[in-house]
Amino acid sequence: MNKIKKVISILILLTIIFNIGNISLAKDVPGGESTLSLDVSSDFEKWNNLSADEKNSTIMPVATTTDISEKAKNSTNSLFFGVQNLFARAITPSHYSLTDDINVPVNNQGRTGQCWAFAMNSVLESYLAISHQKDVIPKYSARHMEYATAKTFLDGTNPKGYNREVGSGGNATVGLGYFTNGTGAVLEQDMPFEDNDDKINLSEIQKEAQMRVTDAKIFPSINKEIDSSGNVTYKDDSGIQYSDDEVRLIRNDIKQYIMKYGGLAATTVGSDRNYYNNPSDPMHSTSYYCDNSSYAIDHELTIVGWDDNYPVNYFNPDKKPKNPGAYICLNTYGTENFADGYIYVSYDDVNIEKNLTGVMGAEDITDNQTIYQNDFYGATVYLTVNPGGAVGMANVFTKESDEDEYIDEVQVAASGNAEVEVYVNTADDNLYSSELHKVEVDKPDLNGSWNTFKLKNPVKITGDKFVVAVKLKSTEQFKIGVECNYKDSGLTTSSTLFDTVSANPGESYLSTDSWQSWNDFTNLTLGDYSFKESNLCVKAITTKDNSGENPNTNTNTNTNTNTNTNTNTNTNTNTNTNTNTNTNTNTNTNTNTNTNTNTNTNTNTNTNTNTDTDIDNSNTNNSNNNNTNTDNENLNNNGNNNSNTNIGIGTTNTNNSGNNTAYYYNATAEKNLSDALPKTGTEMVSIVLPISFIILIISYANYRRYKNIN
User: Fold this and answer.
1) pTM for the model
2) Which residues lie across from 153 on neighbouring strands?
3) Which H/E stretch holds residue 55?
4) Alpha carbon distance 173, 41 (integer Å)
5) Which of 230, 367, 492, 558 could disulfide-link to 604, CB 3.0 to 4.6 Å?
6) Which domains are seen in the chain, by residue range?
7) What tens digit of pLDDT does each residue of 232-273 get?
């Protein structure tokens, strides 16, 4: 028994030693109300200092920091999370690619500027595939994302466009706005890719969206400064230096994310041939490394894996990193460029770990849903909420229909280690605490940067106006998302993607004193910044009640009874009774203002064959019933696309031949034992910790039982 006690003690001691650097016990912050600040990112400051021409040739970064305070970096502030990180690091493989588990098609943007749209669609599609949300994942239209977010068309101005033109580039912020506001994602077959940036008519972007992102994550940026010897200094967006352990933890989170949720959108400088390992022919390079920290980002791709041991000698001999290791990135120039469409980007690359964006949840858009939002363009900045209390975010909405509607989900842009409570007032726009009623939701905290909370019991809207409010509480620093007009707020004097953002008084309200009072968000000022044309990012998703209203019911009942009696004079009587009853009931009930096409095909074939002889009677009845409900159809495109590819470093002719696999992510059929084992730290801990505790309890029980036996 003494041996058991020693083993238990050693296990506990080892756990503490391995995790002591990661444990930070949460402490209450003394009173005082929560305060807000707007922390500008270092990349945005660099971009803001560029000339007008330079700004036009680069991707505009997010204006605010994505990192949080030192306390919040240690949001793994308990022994449990310390153990979780320990196991996560232990079981994270040194090499992994999504292609090990799913089919990842390579896209070709041709001569267009749609790299950002292809990257964001790959993020969504790979999430749907790796999470097994669908058996077959359709390809979504990058062309629709490109055009639906643009401003100027042949026949006028897009009233919902960002301040951007087709071909001028976009970023992950625009992509998330498109994915969360109900504009997209649209199927590729509904707006297929064309190798041009020609202007079109507004009617051509009026497409039905199929999928909406519910949850997404923006990772903390790892900014790098590299000296002449290749030594790397890591910093967050605020200029605070990361320790090597913190960098490893963030990278481990990135790897765990990829294995569980799919690809991550990332950025590089694609137009400088010197960063490629084959500078004389960069389009056929296999690796990439940029050590220049001046802001010149102009290309977006998708991280789909990593190789911790990727040798430094595989990079450009005249420009190679000091440390081994690289991310495996899906590029957007077809399979005949780079390494079959992929490229290895060094961990030390100064841009690859900035503002990584991924999808953590998505759902089909249905006809009976309505998205209520004041933040159509999404979270364009994140405000920092300093510790000290609770902050409230509330949006007032006007009911859009005369039908019964129920608040089913609430979506909010916020990140950090905060507890979440959701409140509603379904009768009017009153924000008094007595009128805001707390509702039960499916989870108590934030998981990412966009979070959707499903109401356990949907609430009926009873008035012409209604309120959805979210209370966020934390003893640590966290972030809240704001749809902000950069120029209006004073962040810059230059035109940006978000000049079309606007707001009205009476739409968004903020409380920083634990719900004692609410302030119209358009009146907020933070130092030199104002928010007259800004809204808080809180959406309400409602569903309409279909019961009893205009049913479209098709019931097909087929009863086939066959009775055959055969009597022979040899006094042998054979009576065969075959009764086949086939009942097919297809009920389709759609009550909404949209058009629903339901095709019900019922085929009943009944064949009765009776053969009588002196020795046998045989009766056969075959009934075949086929019922098909078709809502949409998948289009398989097979063809050749010949284009000139130009990313500013040379032109290459590519021939990209498409087939079914180029249009879908399919889960790999063959799996082995290792695939059934848990991959992420959370999964491992959920298995290992309970088993460990059971062993400890059994050991202690045996010790108590036999301790007096010698």
Assistant:
1) 0.76
2) 156
3) helix 52-56
4) 15
5) 558
6) 84-359 (3.90.70.10), 380-544 (2.60.120), 553-587+589-628 (no CATH)
7) 999 988 888 998 888 988 999 999 999 999 999 999 999 999
